[in-house]
Amino acid sequence: MLSFFLTDSCSLIMERREWYTPSANGDGKIYNCLYRNEKITQKAVMIIVHGMQSHSGRYLSWAYELSNLGYTVAMLDLQGHGKSQNHSGSFGEKNGWMYMLHDIRRLILKVKKWFPELPVVLFGHSMGSFLVRSYITRFPADIDALILSGTARFNYSLYSAYGIVKADVKLHGGMYPATRYEQIMCNLFNRDIIDPVNDAAWCCTVREVCEQHSADPLATKFTIGAYYEMIKGLISVREDKWAVNVPIIPIYIFCGGADPVGEYGKGPAEVYAWLHATGHDVEFRIYPKKRHEMIWESNQEEVRANIYNWLNKKLPQIKRLKDSLH
Predict the structure, then answer these.
(1) pLDDT surpassing 90 at residue 209
(2) What is the residue-wise DSSP string for 204-223?
(3) Domains of the chain with bracketed CATH
């Protein structure tokens, strides 16, 4: 069975730092963590931004694997998630998307101060991919490479969804549970799966991964205010209006061909097309018949090996550029 958590034997050979910072919106604190194997020459810092209703703890076993390959891994639990559940499932009273970007930036700036010689790779999955797409255009100097997992394209239906959710926020308030939206999304995403194991079946073809979603004590349910902010965030990274503002850095995009979030490959392919058309150094890979969480899929060894191969190819270029600027 897959495990998302480090064993005691893992932590004995790895530096582990955990700390809380005041949240950017002033509401509570944000959990941060860092893992690195000090016995190995460090290649880069990998900042991991998790997806909706998830948390950094789900990435701990991958953080261990990365650390043993020479990566310093830093993560946070986004506002309303995991150990940052100041208000469970809520990004805050208003402007939650922008405040989350600043929470991410506080982590990145701290890690860059600790390890100024290392290039910074920003990894975002699902909602985390939307956040890092926002981040890279607002703070382009912070990041040396970008990885997008399970991302999505802009769809004009988002405007209709935005209007509906905005009306609901006015009617019920942003802290109202989004139970109805949750069920609509699960039904939509699971519609092509025969006998789904549970509501999370669309996430992965591996049964244990889906079961861990429902059993996770740190999982959250969104408020309608969180859906409102997320839709606003996705609209903000639309088409060439976003791509032309992305810095010229190496970008890697990957997804499952059976991932409903990316409209079965169409979404990530379109994001790739935007970036390719604007002259970016971008690579795209799709895995047929696999679903949303490719890091944990049945072919996870192949998926991770392709990420590592891409990093090994791009990091020397990044290092030469960084050295030339100093």
Answers:
(1) yes
(2) -S-HHHHHHHHH-TT----B
(3) 8-325 (3.40.50.1820)
